[in-house]
Fold each of these.
Amino acid sequence: MPFYDPDKIEILIDGPTIAQRVAELGAQISADYRDVGGDLVVVAVLKGSFLFLADLVRAIDLPIEVDFLGLSSYGSSEETSGVVQVTQDLTRPVKDKHVLVVEDIVDTGLTMQYLLDNLATRRPASIKVASLLHKPARTRVEVPVHYLGFEIPDRFVVGYGLDYVSKLRNLPFIGVNVGEGPPYPA
Ligand code: 5GP
């Protein structure tokens, strides 16, 4: 038995499909920023984006900087509260730099809207968004996603960085919890 219960996790996007798409996004980002001039800082939103970040930055063929922003909007429930809390701030100013925000998923859009407003006050040269996933059915505010991995249906997904009550971020694919109870052995 693996560390998760395969009967309770349905694979939505498998590892090779994720890898292929992340490579495409990296190539696109490299081409778009190659001749822009100035510094590019990739700002990863913790915790859910950490695997996407790790794979994406290695697919970007440019001398980027990386920084982290901790945000929490969910608590331990599956429904967004709309209240966003900064749990860890950037370590360096982004003034006059090109900022590429890397997020795991844009669901209602509330977290990203908060983040974009917050970053704009720091006067970067530009701001763009890369999100691995987007659930269009749940949109409450429209936010720009310049580099999107996959559109997904309105299901709660886990794995490849995304958690099930803090666990299963280490699944190498994106899955959906099916059936009763937690998708891992007690
Ligand atoms: P939003 O503010 O767009 O509604 O939600 C953004 C955050 O909610 C994401 O960064 C992520 O942490 C969490 N979230 C939204 N949908 C899901 C999901 O299907 N699975 C998991 N694990 N987290 C989600």
Amino acid sequence: MDRQERAQASSVATQSLAAGGAWIVDAATGAARLSAGARRLVGAEAGEPVPDLIACLPLDEASQAEARAAIAAAAAGGADFDLTLHCIEGGEPAALRLSGGAVPDEDGTTRRLAGVICDADEEARLAEEVAARVAHLRSILETAQDGMVVIDAVGVVQSFSRAAERMFGYTAAEAMGRNVKMLMGEADRARHDGHLARYAATRERHIIGVGRIVTGMRKDGSQFPLHLSIGETDVDGRRLFTGFMHDLTEERRSENRTQQLQTELAHISRLSALGEMGSALAHELNQPLAAIGNYITGSRRLLADIPGTGRAVAALEKAAEQVLRAGNIIRRLRDFVSRRASERRVESLAKLVEEASALGLVGVREKRVALQYKLDPEHDAIFVDRIQIEQVLVNLLRNGIDAMETATRRELVISSRLASKGVLEIAVSDSGAGLAPQAMARLFEPFYTTKAAGLGVGLSISRGIVEAHGGDMSAENNADGGATFRFTLPLRSQA
Ligand code: ADP
């Protein structure tokens, strides 16, 4: 008998006892001793002798003969029996189930037979009820999202639910009969036998009824966090532990994602606050910048007539240029972060590229990136929303710079060419790590990122902007290393 058959047989025996009772018959005399349940069934008072078991059963003639023959055969060394016997017409119960066999003594002789007698209909009803409960329990366990594993006192897996199969990648057949340690990460695996042994010895509860987060190991060796809670039961004197497991991988991932989003939102809201503060900021900064400009002009005049101050005058001229440049940067930044409705105009690509690279390269000068323009001067006028296309360019430039972080050659090239009538293609090419094959298909998905601090929205937003302009965007690896992102935009209408 395998484990499942034994379990079934034991549950049938339990039901037979619930619907009847046990009997022992003396092989020589036929006198019977009955348990309380069996006495109730045959209508014998406690203590009342039962000289002939078969005679006091309400059986019809054929069944009586069959029962006597089976008992006689078992007493003579024959096999165990399991009979369904018919009772006298109209009687109650309608059928009895009689099972049993010889109980040999130590010397091998048979002096006694023993077995179970029960109401066959009642037994069938109980069996049905148990089967229904088992099916119900099984359906709950199979549909539950959380995995369930039952182990015995030494850690051997007794049952493995459908969700556990999905969670760990083992089938129930593979997991059953093996030690539950195989589902654990290294640290827990080494300690588990000790935990079980200590619990058996001391009954001191650590995890039972409390639950905690542990590391699970899948069949493929990958590890994942899970919440484990354990219950304990005694079944027929056997101690069993049931572990309920909740996979935390998704929760951890979305926790991280939420945290990242919150950081990013905080950043975006700071940016938009900056946008709203833009004009005030520009005003505040423009005043001192204008004053500096004026002082520089004044100083230059003062120095103009003094011989030998040529170098100082040249330095002041340089300072004046820088003041102008600072003013321009502030103006661009203010435009870039300000919230505004989309507005398309005829713009110069060259100017747009220049402004975008000024913003895109902020803070990366020390990384010594060589930026090259190869723009088609014949086709410069595009019909676009300036800020939005600058945003696309800034995204592509920043991605290129990120990809070249560890490269020895750091070259960015922005080029343009006529793609078809009325359509300009712009390409941003880098000499970085290039696009990983698995990244190719997902580049433009929102929240796809391979960077620790990345948000993964840059490319999806950029493509959205380009598509809203009637263009499209694509990416490819360069033959000599690095990646190129291309997008198309409408040229100024020729009409
Ligand atoms: P983020 O930059 O926040 O990760 P993006 O949407 O801009 O978000 O980019 C998504 C992913 O595409 C990046 O994480 C990176 O893996 C890949 N990628 C983008 N540009 C390049 C590039 N020039 N070279 C290599 N990989 C790139």
Amino acid sequence: MYTDRCMDHFRNPRNVGTIKNPDGVGRVGNPVCGDMMEIQIKVKDEVITDIKFRTFGCGAAIATSSMITELAKGKTIEEALKITRGDVADALEGLPPIKMHCSNLAADALHSAIQDYYKKKGIKIEPLRKKEADEHEHAAGI
Ligand code: FES
């Protein structure tokens, strides 16, 4: 049912724990099962230099949290924001369909930690998106 890679990340999860003075913290709960996950990040020059997680959840949630920390470490914030639950499942060489919802938790927790980082830096994500839209309209001559 689970791939060897998934079982490996479940049995030997990477980057478990917390970071002293994290730059961003994301906490999310899975409405389907009630499990919870927390991801903490340390950021330097827009690059995620350290990342840790704590998960109170099923084996798939632990494996997906472990994998997403590996995928995000060393990436820029912008690159990390593009990591999807599908990327996590692919990196684990697949998840049973009934467990796909567990990978939502990992992607949501990472994105939430990045949002917290932006908030702490005083950067609003909405205005950034609006600025991009305005620039797009301007380029299109609207
Ligand atoms: Fe809760 Fe997997 S069953 S996250």
